Amino acid sequence: MKVKEVADLVGISVRTLHHYDEIGLLTSEETTESGYRIYSESDLETLQQILFFKELGFPLKKIKEIISSPSFDRAEALELHRKSLLEKRSKLDNMIRTIDKTIQHSKGEIEMSNKEKFEGFDFSSNPYEQEARDRWGDKAVDESNAKINSLSRNEKKAWEDEFNSIYKELAEIRHEAPDSEVAQEGIKEWYDFLNRMGNYSLDAFKGLGQMYVDDERFTKNIDQFGKGLAVFMRDAMAVYADKNK
Amino acid sequence: MKVKEVADLVGISVRTLHHYDEIGLLTSEETTESGYRIYSESDLETLQQILFFKELGFPLKKIKEIISSPSFDRAEALELHRKSLLEKRSKLDNMIRTIDKTIQHSKGEIEMSNKEKFEGFDFSSNPYEQEARDRWGDKAVDESNAKINSLSRNEKKAWEDEFNSIYKELAEIRHEAPDSEVAQEGIKEWYDFLNRMGNYSLDAFKGLGQMYVDDERFTKNIDQFGKGLAVFMRDAMAVYADKNK
DNA sequence: CATTGACTCTAACGTTACGTTATACTTTAT
DNA sequence: ATAAAGTATAACGTAACGTTAGAGTCAATG
């Protein structure tokens, strides 16, 4: 097969094939006397492998190593690569959250209704405090309240922004499986956030999640970020709590 | 302030400042007669803005536009950028998912090949080979044996000895509870042994245990060490896998 | 006061994975 | 035979600096 045929077949450009030839990643088995590259079936298979690793985001150099050395430990390479991808992902998450905070903040010059947003954990100013005290004990609730009340306006604003950012993100991934990595990373943000304010045990966290669904006042507020978010959060929070015990 | 002072202050390199100068992103307000760049307070503020957008993953070109034109709609730029980050993230998620699948898949293959090794070992070195030949035909047995035989004699011998020793021990304690300390210590030997030859995850280990009961070929051979050993091992392996997660 | 060490400058190649011309030749179709 | 389509090599461009390399500058020390 000639370049264009191969290129069209696998959906890449002729230039790409030329490039792979240049860097020695994939040299056609045959060449006509006039210099045309002729690819064999075997070449095609190699190309498929190359494209596979390329889709995973491997650099061509690594792909070359992997392909050209059958003894290369692919499993290890995959594990390593996975880690680097996860790092990239968390960097991206940070960027997105920072953007969200910034957007929130600039919008926030107009003070939004604090109470709505804080209902999720502001037991100091809502009628559910007794329930919270019953459920998690006086100590946890008092601690949480003390912290919230000691915040300055700016601090409160910052919390709000972060709160919104987290919920926005969770709303975006609410159709993923609750035990997926994405979901668990998202819910971890929420857990960490809560624990920056008060002291939530994993059980308390799980219980809180359950309340999101049991108590329609919570459900309503939470689902404003996206329908079904409360249920998703309950499930993801339960998985998180069980997994991290 | 001179380059290095600024660079150290904000945590970037001198080269970066030079670069920003080159591309006209940030030119120092002043310059000494000898050509040294002297940055003003105002320059520093601009730099902070630049770094802020940079952290969000904006390309320098866009940052230049944003910075140099006060009329530029920052909010819109942020929203747009947010979208592109979300896309990148979902691409990353896809890559990660694909890697996970691949890893799972290859683990499965390792499991299978170990199974083959196991069979080969059993059938090539014990008196029941004839039975195996009768049941699955000469070809299958020979192929299986060939794989085992590619090991060096010493390797094979050591392997057999250890294998036998472990199974003998397990057979002796097979009437203990699968979650007892004795049983768990015994089964740990087996897990460690397997991981010296292949690569068994805890899940794979658990799955292998299940196979000991599901697949009568395994059951039969294992129970030659003692009736009920296969079932005992399956249970002990499951407990071990769950406990050590 | 000259030397030295720390600092600064410009210039230019290297990096990644091709896209994009530009120029010239080969093969295929009409 | 001639045009159209395909192929080849060569080389610049991209993003954001890192990394030498060679040369000049500034402040402190002997």
From TrEMBL, chains A, B:
| Annotated ranges, domain HTH merR-type | 1-69
Q: Does the keyword DNA-binding apply?
A: yes
Domain of life, per lineage: Bacteria
One function term, GO molecular function aspect: DNA-binding transcription factor activity
Keyword Membrane listed: no
By its UniProt entry, which SUPFAM superfamilies does this protein fall under?
Answer: Antibiotic binding domain of TipA-like multidrug resistance regulators (SSF89082), Putative DNA-binding domain (SSF46955)
Quote the PANTHER family the UniProt record gives: HTH-TYPE TRANSCRIPTIONAL ACTIVATOR MTA (PTHR30204:SF90), REDOX-CYCLING DRUG-SENSING TRANSCRIPTIONAL ACTIVATOR SOXR (PTHR30204)
**What's the name of the protein?**
MerR family transcriptional regulator
